[in-house]
Please model this.
Amino acid sequence: MPETSRNSSNGSTAHIRLVRLNTDKTRRIDGSFTGYRVYFELSQTPPTAWKDIFAREWNDVNPMQEAGIDGGFLVMHCPLQKIASHLPVLKKVVAATNEAHKRYAQEQATERERQEDVWKDERQTVEDVAKSLQFE
Model:
C-alpha cells in the first residue's frame, strides 16, 4: 500500500516535533575526535514526503551541516558542544517542514478530489451511453 501524506493514527497531516536528544543512540563518529552522530527523537515517524521536504528545507538553511531523518529520529553530525546552537535552527526547519508538508498534503487531497470528479464524470458518460443502447 503506498504511503500517504496523512498520519494513519488520526487521519490528520503529520505534525512532527523534536522531543528530546536520545542519549542512548548518540555516538561519536568512527575516526572522529569531536564529531558525533546526534539523534533527536521525533514525536512520530514522519512519512516519506515529510522526510523529502525536510531534506530540502535543511539544505536551504544549512547545506554544509549534515542532518537527515532515520526512522523516528532526526540525525545530525556535529560536535556535542554545538548541539545547543543548532537546536533553534533545527526547530525552525522542522516547523517549516510541517507547514510545507501541510500544503503538500492539501495539494494532494485537491488532486485526488479532481481525479475522482473526472472518474465520476467518465462513469456517468459510460452509464448514459449504456442506457441509450437497445439490445432487444
In short: The two ends are 44 Å apart (CA to CA). DSSP finds two helices and five strands in the chain. The longest strand covers residues 35-42. The CA atoms of residues 18 and 42 lie 5 Å apart.
